[in-house]
Amino acid sequence: MGRRMNLDKGRALVCGGAGFLGSHVCERLLLEGMDVVCFDNLQTGARANIAHLLRDEAFTFVEGCVCEDLPEGPFDEIWNLASPASPPRYQIDPVGTLMTNVVGTRNGLDLARRWNARFFQASTSEVYGDPEVHPQREDYRGAVNATGPRACYDEGKRAAETLCFDYRRMYEVDVRVARIFNTYGPRMDPEDGRVVSNFVVNALASRPLELYGGGEQTRSFCYRDDLVDGFLLMMRHPDPIEVPVNLGNPVEVTVRELGELVHEMIGTRPAYVSRPMPIDDPRQRRPDISRARELLGWEPRTPLRLGLEKTIAYFAKDAARRRQSEPALS
């Protein structure tokens, strides 16, 4: 991380700052000239994601849980990206996932209220559940199973949005709520269970790819740099944004098509294992990003093939590093 040229642009707290997206937010804020406090319990984040940032005197890492005490201010911005985001990870401790999204968000909002800080909430397309409207607009209220195995995350994020807008109405906290659709790129956890990481890691290892329900369900994949651009545009917008905003790529592909593209790019022979569809897994997922275009002038610029090229290179390098670190067999 290069030395900052401007040291008076404020102080930010990034909850979940050692995660896939949080670490990139920390990088961008440092480049903007902010002092950054990264707060993470390392449940799904990783020290490796932020190791290069520790050399910057404007960066501080604090290990802890958002459901407990947050670092003390003052802060000009609070970024809430603290939550497991992949179904296998957030279902390990569903109660903890729900509390992270409800209690953790409330704690962050209380801190924002105390210091008159702008508050960013990383929400999710999962608030739409298994949608009955396609593509998904922000005014669609969703079809969520409130008692299913995914509810800890889906309903946790919905409740977190409720808190954000109630704090806006009651206490005039300046909140920015982004509904994130499927995102991929370097620093994804190879074992997080998301479709891009699963497919790339398995194809690199010449293992068959798992297709759930035949792979005909659709997803829309946004490259991480494009998404973080959208985050910054939301947070820097001079006027209040009193509605949630979809951030994602409106180009829709089936999961099987993604698998075929990964095989083609890596040069492996297509091979699949069929699995039953998980409970409440969405059949279709594509954002309507009209609001982001109109409010922010934002839309993704990275084609799927280019983003996958960078992601495959990252996972190939990571796999080589892991092999080198394995103890030799005697």
- Morphology: globular
Distance between the termini: 40 Å
Give the % helix: 25-40%
Largest sheet properties: 7 strands, parallel
Given as residue ranges, the uncertain stretches (5+ residues, pLDDT < 50) are 1-7
Strands, count? 13
What structural class should be given to the helix and strand makeup?
Answer: alpha/beta
The strand order across the widest sheet is 3-2-1-4-5-6-11
Element order, helices and strands? EHEHEEHHEHEEHEEEHEEHEHH
* Average pLDDT metric: 93
Beta content: 15-25%
* Number of separate helices: 10
| Rg computed from alpha carbons, rounded to a whole number of angstroms | 19 Å
Helix and strand topology:
Layout: E1 11-15, H1 20-32, E2 35-40, H2 47-50, E3 59-63, E4 77-80, H3 87-90, H4 94-115, E5 118-124, H5 151-171, E6 175-180, E7 183-184, H6 195-204, E8 209-212, E9 218-220, E10 222-223, H7 224-236, E11 245-247, E12 252-254, H8 255-266, E13 272-275, H9 290-296, H10 304-325
Parallel strand pairs: 1-2, 1-4, 2-3, 4-5, 5-6, 6-11, 7-10, 8-13
Antiparallel strand pairs: 9-12
Describe this structure in words.
The protein is an alpha/beta fold and 330 residues long. It has helices spanning 20-32, 47-50, 87-90, 94-115, 151-171, 195-204, 224-236, 255-266, 290-296, 304-325, and strands at residues 11-15, 35-40, 59-63, 77-80, 118-124, 175-180, 183-184, 209-212, 218-220, 222-223, 245-247, 252-254, 272-275. It contains 10 helices and 13 strands. The strands form 4 sheets. A 7-stranded parallel sheet has the order 3-2-1-4-5-6-11, sandwiched between helices. A two-stranded parallel sheet has the order 7-10. The termini are far apart.
